[in-house]
Amino acid sequence: AAVLVPALALSSAGIRLGQGGGYYDGFLSSRPREALSVAVVFDDELAVSDIPADPWDARLDMALTPAGWWRLTPPQAGSAPAVRPGCPRWEPFDPAGRA
After folding, report:
1. What are phi and psi of 47, to 5 degrees?
2. What is the pLDDT of residues 2-41, one digit of tens each?
3. Across-strand partners of 70?
4. Measured between alpha carbons, how far is 77 from 8 in angstroms, rounded to an integer?
5. In a 3-state reduction of DSSP, which class is residue 26?
6. In the chain, what's the furthest Cα-to-Cα distance?
7. Is the pLDDT of residue 86 over 60?
C-alpha cells in the first residue's frame, strides 16, 4: 500500500513542503506503518535544500516525478557519487523491479 501526497517541494531528507496547514502531516502520522508515503512533485522540486522542518513533520519514503520514481535511502560510506547533483540520498527506483 502507498499513500500519494502532493507537495510543493521535497528536501534531501524527505521533508515535504506543503501549504502550511498541517493536514498531510497529521494524516501521514496515522497511516499504517507498512504503507509507503510518496510525494508527487516536479523534477526540480525534489531534493530542495533549506526546507524548514518541525518535529511533527512527516518524512516521506519516496517521490514520484515526471522523470520517474525516487527512493530515499541513507547515505552509504564509500558509495558512488550522487545520482542527482547535490542530493546523495535520492536514488532512482523501479517499482516493477526491472533492472
Report:
1. 65, 40
2. 889 999 999 888 889 988 787 888 888 888 878 888 999 9
3. 63, 92
4. 31
5. helix
6. 40
7. no
Amino acid residing at 36? L
Question: What's this model's pTM, rounded to 2 decimal places?
Answer: 0.75
In 3D space, the residue among 13, 4, 6, 2 whose CA is nearest the CA of residue 54 turns out to be: 13
Q: Locate 33 and state its grid cell.
A: 506503518
Whole-number Cα distances in Å, 83 to 4, 6, 87, 91: 23, 23, 7, 6
Question: Residue range 67-81: average pLDDT?
Answer: 68
C-alpha dist (Å) from residue 33 to 18, 23, 28: 22, 18, 10
d(CA 25, CA 56): 7
The three-state secondary structure class of 84 is strand
Dig out the grid coordinates for 65 from the structure. 516525478
- Residue 98: pLDDT band (50, 70, 90) is low
The span from the CA of 80 to the CA of 63, in Å, is 21
